[in-house]
Design a protein that fits this description.
Layout (H helix, E strand, L loop, with lengths): L26 H12 L15 E2 H11 L4 H12 L11 E2 L13 H4 L1 H4 L20 H11 L1 H7 L1 H19 L9 E2 L2 H4 L8 H4 L26 H16 L11 E2 L1 H20 L5 H18 E2 L4 E2 L2 E2 L4 E2 L18 H12 L32 E2 H13 L3 H17 L5 E2 L6 E2 L5 H11 L2 H13 L5
Antiparallel strand pairs: 1-2, 3-4, 4-7, 5-6, 7-8, 9-10, 10-11
Helix pairs in contact: 1-17, 2-3, 2-6, 2-17, 3-6, 3-8, 6-7, 6-8, 6-12, 6-18, 8-12, 12-13, 15-16, 16-17
Length: 470
């Protein structure tokens, strides 16, 4: 395994992971070295050991940071991912590297069988992928990558080539995945939402009969502590959902698991605003995309806002009800500019209140309710803090005028990223590293917070707001 992507030891206590007596290179140099170590020539792996292929939303976040090191590599990162798009518009959550042994990661290409099982949906024949998707951060990432070097972007036709693929991606989600009939996108597998093991999935997952343990081998346990990872029972349910979806030819429709998730839909809305900016850059009409983003925001509020929780909740489409679990996903809509002012203020109070503790008991926002019955500060998405969600919340706080809180969160992200050796995720109380270290999006988003601070304030807000007037 590469030295920049080592397995973090299981934390044994709440001691702060920081030793000021040990000299280290500047943070930006260390972060850039992580991205260099993960670069394959066409994309960046999240972790050489644990995640040795290209992941969809990882690449979007990585490109946002990579643009500060090499705008060309950042463009290539997204282009490589988009080249694996299916004809129906979906962007698969994994693009497999054929040089990586099959047993290095599960589910491997021979499980997904994309080119055969996905033939009717237009899976590519020349590259192997998974058949599910991940959150649509890509248009936002493409716009920010363009801003890093507009001259290079225009000379290469970066946006002109990316735009039709991104538009097809959004059409797929909006037309094929409105399984609840209320205008929002549903995920059909916890891996699609990206927060794989969240307690928000426990209720809908309980309906799924797990695949037999003998039918698969968990390669993730070779690189992560079992106490930090999903249980075998949950993993068996993940495998069952994925194999059932594969066996019906990756045809979308109501199944055992269909959930409207606030973060997934908020990122789609943010990317719709970004597509409006891209359309304007290319000389095309943009207002329709901004109007769509505003309609989606209204639908998000109508279907997923829960006043008694002070935040957005996931909706179990099959059961027709909100899931009463507070996950960080329900805070991510703070990223949206047209969120009603009272809802944004309530989200800020919730972020800083006892359930998430920002600025009080926690330095970074945890992935799950601190007061929840199944909170675990170390187990995958059931309590630890993740750097991509905290980066999104830093954007949201800043967008809604909470500059002091945003600055404090930015300092917390940067300190914890450096002190944890760019961990995959951390104990939200102590910052102790969990999962892999030398993790791709942690390093990339560290670079983004370090570079061009004033420009990010302006361009980041502009990219989200999608201003279309000249």
């Amino acid at each position: 395994m590469d030295s920049t992507a080592q397995r973090a030891p299981r934390p044994t206590g709440r001691t702060v992971a920081y030793d000021p007596s040990v000299p280290a290179p500047p943070l930006h140099v260390r972060a850039a070295a992580v991205l260099e170590a993960g670069w394959t020539g066409t994309s960046t792996v999240p972790s050489r050991g644990l995640y040795p292929h290209q992941w969809s939303w990882d690449s979007a976040f990585i490109s946002i940071g990579l643009r500060h090191v090499s705008p060309l590599r950042a463009q290539t990162e997204l282009e490589t991912l988009l080249a694996a798009q299916w004809a129906d518009g979906r962007i698969p959550h994994i693009v497999f590297n054929p040089s990586v042994p099959l047993d290095a990661y599960f589910p491997s290409p021979d499980f997904w069988r994309s080119s055969a099982a996905g033939r009717a949906a237009g899976a590519p024949r020349t590259v192997q992928t998974s058949g599910i998707v991940q959150p649509p951060v890509h248009a936002l990432a493409a716009w920010l990558v363009h801003l890093a070097d507009p001259g290079l972007s225009r000379a290469r036709g970066f946006l002109a080539r990316a735009y039709p693929r991104l538009a097809a991606w959004h059409r797929y989600l909006l037309h094929r995945r409105d399984l609840g009939g209320g205008g929002l996108v549903s995920v059909v597998h916890p891996w699609e939402q990206g927060m794989d093991n969240s307690p928000c999935w426990d209720r809908p997952l309980s309906r799924v009969t797990p695949a037999p343990a003998r039918s698969f081998r968990r390669a993730d346990l070779d690189h992560g502590s079992p106490e930090d990872r999903p249980t075998d029972l949950d993993y068996g349910r993940y495998v069952r959902l994925a194999s059932d979806y594969r066996d019906r030819g990756y045809v979308d429709g109501p199944g055992d698991f269909a959930v409207e998730d606030p973060a997934f839909n908020a990122l789609l809305i943010a990317s719709e605003y970004a597509l409006a900016r891209i359309a304007r850059e290319l000389g095309a009409a943009a207002p329709a995309r901004q109007e769509r983003a505003e309609r989606l925001t209204d639908a998000l509020v109508e279907r997923l806002w829960e006043p008694s929780a002070g935040m957005f909740l996931c909706r179990d489409v099959r059961a027709g009800e909100l899931i009463p679990e507070r996950g960080v996903s329900g805070l991510v809509p703070l990223l949206l500019p047209n969120l009603p002012r009272d809802l944004a203020a309530t989200l800020v109070r919730t972020v800083c209140g006892p359930h998430f503790g920002l600025g009080g008991t926690t330095r970074l926002v945890p992935s799950y309710d601190l007061l929840g019955d199944v909170f675990d500060p170390h187990r995958y998405w059931r309590g630890p803090a993740w750097f991509n969600t905290n980066w999104l919340l830093e954007r949201g706080l800043r967008l809604h005028g909470e500059r002091g809180r945003a600055d404090a969160l930015r300092r917390g992200i940067l300190h914890t990223a450096g002190a944890s050796d760019f961990a995959e995720y951390v104990d939200p109380y102590t910052g102790q590293a969990c999962g892999a270290t030398g993790f791709g999006w942690t390093a990339a988003l560290t670079l983004d917070l370090l570079h061009d601070r004033p420009a990010w304030d302006k361009d980041g807000v502009t990219a989200i707001k999608g201003e279309v007037r000249g």
